[in-house]
Amino acid sequence: MDVSEFLFLKTNLNTKGLTASDSALANIYLLEPKYRTQISIKNNCLIRKYNGKDNRSGFAFPIPLKDAPDDYLKNAVSDLLKTHSDKTPLRFCLCTMEQKNALDKCFAENFSAYKISWDSNRGDSDYIYLSEKLATLSGKTLHKKKNHVSKFLREYENRFTFKLFPDEDVAEDILKIEDEWFSERSNDVEKAFDEKSLDLERESIKIALDNKDVFGFTGGVIYIDEKPAAFCLASPASDTTLDIHFEKVLADIAVNGGYAAINNLFAKENRSYLYINREEDMNVEGLRHAKLSYKPEIILDKYFGEVELS
To answer: Max CA-CA distance within the chain?
Structure first.
C-alpha cells in the first residue's frame, strides 16, 4: 500500500478504543519491510497479513472503516477462510484479548466447523501508561524515576533545552542523534549488535520524518550545550493513545538520567492523550525491567493462533 493511501486510512479508519501499538498507522507502514506485511482494504476494513515467524505470522485483527456495517468481521473472516486450505491454514496474530474473544465469538456463531487454537508470547505485550503519571511522576512508586529526572536537571542546569517536533526545525538533529547512537552501539563490543535491524530502524526514522503529516508524528529533542543529545518520536494509535516508536539517548547523557528526562519532558507536552504506549519488551530482560519500573497502567497481552477444525 502506497503511503498516500494512508491519508485515506487516517481519516476513515475506526480506531476508537484501540490502544495497541500495532494499530498505529505509522507502525503498519514502517514495519512492512521487516515483516513483509501485506496490507489492503477489503470488506470495509483494513486487512493486514504479517509474514514473519511464529507469533508474527498471520492476519492481525481486521480494523473497520468508520462506515463499516455491524457484520464487517463476519464478512472479513468469511473472505479469509476462502483463501486458505489444509496445506496453508488460516492464522491470526497480534490480537488483544478483546479481539481474540471477538474472533472466537464470530467463529462460534458463523463458522462453527472451525475454532482457533490460541497461544501468547509475553514479549509481545505492550506497556501502556497514563500520560499524566509519566508527566508528574507523583507518588511513592515513581519516586526513583523522579530522582533520575532531578539528577538530570541538576547535572545540566542552565545547559539543556527541549524542542518539539514538528513545531521546531529539529529533523536533522534527530538524524544526527540516531547516527551517533548507532556509532556508539556498533563500537561497543559488550553489547549485542544487529546491524541489519538497526539499518532498517535508521531508514524508518527517515521515512517517519519525511511523512510526519501523513502519520501524525510528534516528538522532541533534548540539547545539551546546544548539541543534540536525545530524541523521541511518536504517533497516535487512536485518539486516546500515543505510541512511542523511537527513543534514543547518547551514552554520556543516559548515565545522568537522560532516558527519564526525555520520557518525562515528552509526556508533559502530551497530556491531551490519556495513554502513552511504550510498546513491547521482546523478552529482553533489561528492557522488561525498565518498562515495569515505570509502573504501567496496562500490560496489553497479545495472542496468535491457527484455525483448525472443531
So the answer is: 68
**CB within 8 A of 27, min separation 6: which ones?**
21, 235, 243, 245
Does one domain contain both 131 and 275? yes
pLDDT at 185: 81
Q: Could you tell me the CATH number of the domain that includes residue 78?
A: 3.40.630.30
0.85 exceeded by pTM: yes
What pLDDT, on the 0 to 100 scale, is given for residue 191? 58
Other C-beta atoms closer than 10 Å to the C-beta of 35 total 18
Domain containing 144: what range? 127-279
- What distance in Å separates the CA atoms of residue 184 and residue 179, rounded to the nearest whole number? 9
Residue-level length of the chain: 310
Q: At what angle do helices 171-187 and 195-210 cross, to 10 degrees?
A: 180
> What is the CA 37 to chain-centroid distance, rounded?
15
Residue 291: which residues within 8 A CB-CB, separation 6 or more? Answer: 127, 278, 281
- Cβ neighbors of 7 (< 8 A, separation 6 or more) are 214
For residues 99 and 24, membership in a common domain is answered with yes
Q: What is the mean pLDDT of each run of 10 residues along the chain (310 residues)?
A: 90 96 96 94 95 94 97 96 84 98 98 96 97 97 97 97 98 96 76 71 94 97 98 97 98 97 98 98 95 98 95
Other beta carbons within 10 Å of 124? 23
What pLDDT is stored for residue 192 in this prediction? 56
Is residue 35 assigned to a domain? yes
Kindly report each contact of residues 148-157 with a partner whose C-beta sits within 8 Å and lies 24 or more positions away, as own/partner: 148/257, 148/259, 148/260, 148/261, 149/257, 149/260, 149/261, 149/264, 150/257, 151/256, 151/257, 152/256, 152/257, 152/258, 152/260, 152/261, 153/261, 155/256, 155/257, 156/224, 156/256
Query: In this structure, are 100 and 21 located in the same domain?
Result: yes
Residue at grid coordinates 517517519: 208
Q: Which three cell numbers stand for residue 164?
A: 518539539
Grid cell for residue 191: 553489547
Amino acid at 110: N
